[in-house]
């Protein structure tokens, strides 16, 4: 019995060091094979943006399977996070996602997109399609913005921004769109906001308006400028017989139509804003529209209207600008006709309102 007891004590003394050694070997193996780092990175993705980050399109957006996430720590947003790949050089890229409620004061960075509406086609945004209330836009980098109206709280919407830092192509933009839309949907569900979601995005176009090859005669308009076909003779008489347009889309929060000169320069820009986008646009303008100052603070060469729409308590806003070309420091249309501007905006706003089921279109007079 004494011999057996002694053996058990000896065995116990060996077990502890052996266990520590085994755990050390396992830990070394995990580190040396990168398994631990991968586990840590996967956990960072799971917790990103308060656990609402959609991961389905991340690898396509950042053309890598080695990804990690971190918090942006920005108190101006409901949640924010950044995802980056492990590449170096030209292949290094990152994706930033920010979420907020439309009822909260918008950060100034989110309003800067609307500051270029009067400057050629720089304020343009392409509809995402696939049934999403979202757009893709470019100003030195690509951004996807989604504004999902809360059907059970019509005074607010869940707004999501996805910014891609890196070299874009059709695959990375599709990934950016998928991440942004599906993250917005997850965040809305988490916070009890009932939304109408679209289908999974499989493509986002890199094409933009503005080059001569994007212009065509107004009488051929089929998309966002279709409402102006009836004005083709009048438009030609006012120096804008051509148009630049995006496909018609009944869900996009921003619609663009540009009337162009015979030289294919955009002379007038028409914009429609809905829901959260309308709220942000008005915030970007402050009281300029109401006081008759317009986007260039004094020229009054614009027209605007509003309408009530069923999806949101925020009225839709429709605006026409006499455009300025900052590159040439001129206005492509030298003479602005307030009468033509009002007739073009009335046709545009009426068509948009009918398409969305909106009512009570009001052409707004200026002082």
What sort of overall outline do the alpha carbons produce when their principal axes are compared?
globular
| Strand-residue proportion | 15-25%
Taking strands numbered 1, 2, ... along the chain, how are they ordered across the largest sheet? 1-2-3-7-6-5-4
Structural classification: alpha+beta
Q: Count helical runs.
A: 8
C-alpha-based Rg, rounded: 27 Å
The helical percent reads 25-40%
Measured distance between first and last alpha carbons = 107 Å
Taking all residues together, what is the mean pLDDT?
86
Low-confidence parts: none
SSE succession? HHHEEEHEEEEHEHEEEHEEHE
State the total count of DSSP E strands: 14
Q: What can be said about the biggest beta sheet?
A: 7 strands, antiparallel
Description:
The longest helix has 32 residues, at 2-33. The protein has eight helices and 14 strands. The radius of gyration is 27 Å and the shape is globular. It is of the alpha+beta class and 367 residues long. The mean pLDDT is 86. The termini are far apart. It has helices at residues 2-33, 35-51, 58-61, 108-111, 170-190, 232-237, 275-285, 338-356; strands at 67-71, 79-85, 94-101, 126-127, 134-138, 142-149, 157-165, 216-217, 242-245, 254-260, 266-273, 302-308, 316-322, 359-364. The protein has a seven-stranded antiparallel sheet with strand order 1-2-3-7-6-5-4, sandwiched between helices. A seven-stranded antiparallel sheet has the order 8-9-10-11-13-12-14.
């Amino acid at each position: 019995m004494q011999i057996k007891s002694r053996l058990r004590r000896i065995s116990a003394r060996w077990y502890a060091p052996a266990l520590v050694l085994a755990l050390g070997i396992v830990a070394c193996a995990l580190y040396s094979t990168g398994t631990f780092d991968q586990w840590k990175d996967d956990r960072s993705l799971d917790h990103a943006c308060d656990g609402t980050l959609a991961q389905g399109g991340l690898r396509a957006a950042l053309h890598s399977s080695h990804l990690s996430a971190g918090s942006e720590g920005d108190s101006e947003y409901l949640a924010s996070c950044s995802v980056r790949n492990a590449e170096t050089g030209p292949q290094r890229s990152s994706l930033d996602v920010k979420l907020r409620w439309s009822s909260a004061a918008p950060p100034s960075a989110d309003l800067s997109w609307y500051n270029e509406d009067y400057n050629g086609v720089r304020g343009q945004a392409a509809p995402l399609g696939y049934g999403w209330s979202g757009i893709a836009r470019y100003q030195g980098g690509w951004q996807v913005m989604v504004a999902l109206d809360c059907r059970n709280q019509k005074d607010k919407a869940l707004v999501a921004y996805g910014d891609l830092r890196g070299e874009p192509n059709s695959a990375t933009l599709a990934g950016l769109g998928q991440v942004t839309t599906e993250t917005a949907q997850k965040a809305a569900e988490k916070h009890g906001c009932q939304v109408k979601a679209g289908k999974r995005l499989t493509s986002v176009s890199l094409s933009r308006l503005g080059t001569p090859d994007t212009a065509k005669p107004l009488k051929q308009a089929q998309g966002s400028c279709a409402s102006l076909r009836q004005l083709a003779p009048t438009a030609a008489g006012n120096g804008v017989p051509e148009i630049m347009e995006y496909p018609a889309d009944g869900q996009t929060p921003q619609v663009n139509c540009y009337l162009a000169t015979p030289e294919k320069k955009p002379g007038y820009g028409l914009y429609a804003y809905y829901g959260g986008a309308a709220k942000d646009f008005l915030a970007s303008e402050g009281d300029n529209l109401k006081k008759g100052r317009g986007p260039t603070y004094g020229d009054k060469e614009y027209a605007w209207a509003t309408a009530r729409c069923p999806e949101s308590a925020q009225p839709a806003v429709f605006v026409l600008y006499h455009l300025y070309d900052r590159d040439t420091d001129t206005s492509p249309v030298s003479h602005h006709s307030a009468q033509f501007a009002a007739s073009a905006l009335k046709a545009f706003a009426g068509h948009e309102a009918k398409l969305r089921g909106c009512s009570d279109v009001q052409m707004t007079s200026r002082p």
